[in-house]
Design brief:
By secondary structure, the protein is mainly α. Helices cover 76% and strands 0% of the residues. It is elongated and about 80 Å long. The N and C termini lie far apart (81 Å).
Length: 102
């Protein structure tokens, strides 16, 4: 395979940079494609994938950060207090062992 026939592989960071450059107001997408040696349909696909990924990330973040209802609050509180009880119990057992050994 010669140098002219080989295709450049772009990293994810490079693709994001190119997509963001193409999304700036007044950007000439044809010029950007020529400069980076890519076809316009490739830029379109990268843009679609980037926007889809961004939308999925926002949706996933909303689902995990904004749980609905008081049940989630109480589950977190219960887990916290279980941990407190475990720590206090462990500390009491340690103190009992020290007292018995004295």
């Amino acid at each position: 395979m010669t140098e002219e026939n080989s295709k450049k592989r772009y990293t994810a960071d490079e693709k994001v940079k190119i997509v963001l450059e193409s999304l700036t107001p007044g950007a000439n997408k044809s010029e950007i494609c020529r400069r980076y040696g890519i076809y316009s349909n490739q830029l379109i696909r990268w843009t679609e994938n980037a926007l889809k990924g961004a939308a999925e990330s926002v949706d996933r973040k909303n689902r995990t950060n904004h749980k609905k209802g008081p049940a989630d609050y109480y589950e977190k509180e219960l887990a916290y207090w279980k941990q407190v009880v475990l720590e206090v119990t462990a500390e009491n057992q340690l103190l009992k062992k020290k007292r018995v050994g004295d």
